[in-house]
Amino acid sequence: MKYELFLQYEGKEIGQNELLKEFKEMWKSKNRKIKDVAALKLYYNAEEHKCYYVVNETESGNF
User: Domain locations in the chain?
Assistant: First the structure.
């Protein structure tokens, strides 16, 4: 099964692919390698318009 997830809040919409793309761009801007990400969790807070992340169960932040 193939699916896409979109979040809508206050007239704005963001999809899972867009969040993943933004994460990858942010990660690379820190001179980090995508191949080093074995596990990724993304938590989008619609009220703050921020996405929080946990990488490999050890590193976290937001963008």
Answer: 12-62
Other C-beta atoms closer than 10 Å to the C-beta of 25 total 10
Residue with tokens 């989008």: 44
Of the candidates 43, 40, 44, the one whose C-alpha atom is nearest the C-alpha of residue 12 is 44
For residue 54 the two structure tokens come to 């946990």
pLDDT in tens, 4-51: 999 999 999 999 999 999 999 999 999 999 999 999 999 999 999 999
Residues 6+ apart with CB under 8 A from 40: 23, 53, 54, 55
Q: How far apart are CA 51 and CA 3, in angstroms?
A: 20
Q: Calculate the dihedral angle through the C-alpha atoms of 53, 62, 34, 31, rounding to the nearest 10 degrees.
A: -150
The secondary structure element, H or E, covering residue 29 is helix 16-29
